[in-house]
Design goal:
- It is built from 19 helices and eleven strands.
- α1 packs antiparallel against α3, α2 runs antiparallel to α3 and α6 runs antiparallel to α10.
């Protein structure tokens, strides 16, 4: 399965919740267009879910099919009522204001914002921390309020608690402070786990553990050991190994799915996983981009797929949150690996956010898949380096305009009414999308399947478009 040059191919799949949709699009290009079949896969959190699915394959045909399986799994996860379950204490509060507040904090904070005003973004974030967003604010994505006038005031805002940490405060105010030594969680992955184990079908394809364990591929799923405060990995054989990605941890029994669930167990949202007497959580706490493990396993031609912007194109609420939690610097540290002679690492990354980590709108995730596809085509295109930044700007512009289209469409579908001024605005945005696709194609970059319709038709939505709405948006 080595590359055509004889090099050992490695895929590094980063964490990022539902932002993992970007990685699906990138994989479509690596495997589908460039016939890459990995010898090594290292993965974290959302990447661990995708990586486990892909690691069932050994041939190009198998891998191409499995990427579509992974895409289907990701889309199925937007039906959260089937795939995730509430912890009993939260289910008991159904219908109360505090339950609504917790759901809002988990699923809506971190939604990418489309406004460029940094002061207003900081002010909005501060308001969220103090009292939460209004339904109108959350629905429109608009930023309101006047921002702090000085850098000192901005730093003071940045020092405050982040919205996701606010979840922990609300949980503790309801029932106790700790659960098994760690903060209580809001949801569980139980239905998801039952489905991947071949039990109750919630739309997630079962994992064939025998297929994953076949010779020909090394898999490492990153998990964070809370007590040891270190990264460990679960192998394709279901063996827990230390941070060198090779040395087995003694006296531990588990299987690969235990590792996949642990790797995706975001603290405060999902419960920690107990393995061998130790509690494990999301590998992204320390190794969101497990590049070092791929190097340690001897990968020579590495492709690193990043779900969250490492070098964002603009300031936003989600960037503010990432900076305040040290997330950006952690990702940079993960990427700062000294490569042995002859080893290459090709990074495919977004520069804008399309979805929040726990935002589950199927249409936005579909846009993010297409964004990952475009960015991978640009990175892998082999065209003049002077052209790539132009194409990158075009794909960012296309994606941002599609997000704006989706928002306008979503509001109209929700209300059942299409006002004339909204339709006019939507058509202007659609023309911008079409112009961007044409400009990018003229530069020599292939567009994702269906791109010729982005400027003409509705984006994907969970609800049907009302029959009295226009079908043609040109």
């Amino acid at each position: 399965m080595a590359d055509v040059d004889g090099a050992k191919v490695g895929f590094v799949l980063a964490g990022g919740g539902f932002k993992g949709a970007f990685e699906v699009g990138a994989l479509q290009v690596l495997v589908g267009a460039h016939a890459m079949v990995p010898d090594v896969v290292t993965a974290t959190s959302a990447g661990a879910v995708l990586g486990t699915v892909l690691s069932q394959g050994r041939t190009l045909e198998e891998c191409r099919r499995l990427i579509e399986v992974a895409k289907g799994d990701l889309m199925a996860m937007t039906d959260t009522s089937r795939v995730f379950s509430e912890q009993p204490w939260l289910a008991g509060l159904e219908g109360t204001s505090i339950a609504s507040r917790i759901h809002s904090l988990v699923t809506e904070h971190g939604r990418p914002d489309l406004d460029d005003d940094w002061d207003q973004l900081v002010a909005s974030a501060a308001a969220d921390l103090e009292g939460g967003s209004s339904a109108e604010h959350r629905g429109s994505g608009a930023i309101s309020g006047e921002g702090p006038a000085s850098g000192a005031e901005r730093r003071a805002v940045a020092d405050r608690i982040h919205p996701f940490e606010k979840v922990g405060e609300l949980v503790r105010s309801v029932r106790g402070d700790r659960e098994h030594g760690v903060g209580r969680s809001v949801l569980t992955l139980d239905p998801f786990e039952e489905s991947v184990r071949g039990g109750t079908d919630v739309g997630i394809a079962p994992i064939d553990l025998v297929a994953v364990a076949r010779p020909g591929l090394q898999l490492r799923l990153a998990v964070t050991a809370l007590k040891a405060r270190s990264t460990r990995y679960i192998t394709q054989d279901g063996v827990l190994v230390d941070d060198d990605a090779r040395t087995p941890v003694p006296d531990v029994e588990l299987d690969l799915i235990d590792g996949m669930i642990a790797s995706a167990s975001v603290p405060g949202v999902f419960p920690a996983r107990e393995i061998g007497g130790e509690l494990y959580v999301d590998g992204g706490c320390l190794q969101n981009i497990p590049l070092q493990a791929a190097v340690d396993l001897g990968a020579e031609r590495i492709f690193t797929l990043v779900a969250c912007p490492v070098k964002p194109a603009k300031k936003s609420v989600s960037l503010w949150a990432a900076e305040s939690l040290g997330y950006l610097s952690m990702q940079l540290d993960n990427l700062a690996v000294v490569l042995p002679d002859g080893v290459t690492n090709t990074v495919i990354e977004p520069t804008i956010d399309v979805v929040g980590s726990f935002e589950v709108h199927i249409g936005l995730m579909n846009i993010d898949i297409d964004y990952g596809n475009m960015r991978a085509v640009e990175v892998m295109g082999g065209l003049d380096e002077a052209v790539v930044p132009i194409a990158t700007a075009a794909s960012d512009s296309i994606t941002l305009h599609r997000q704006l289209c989706w928002q306008l469409e979503d509001h109209a579908i929700s209300s059942g009414t299409m006002h004339g001024d909204v339709l006019d605005r939507l058509r202007v945005l659609k023309r911008s999308v079409q112009a961007g696709v044409e400009a990018r194609t003229a530069l020599g970059f292939a567009a994702p399947e269906g791109a010729d319709r982005w400027g003409q038709t509705w984006e994907l939505h969970a609800a049907d478009v009302p029959a009295h709405f226009p079908a043609d948006l040109t």
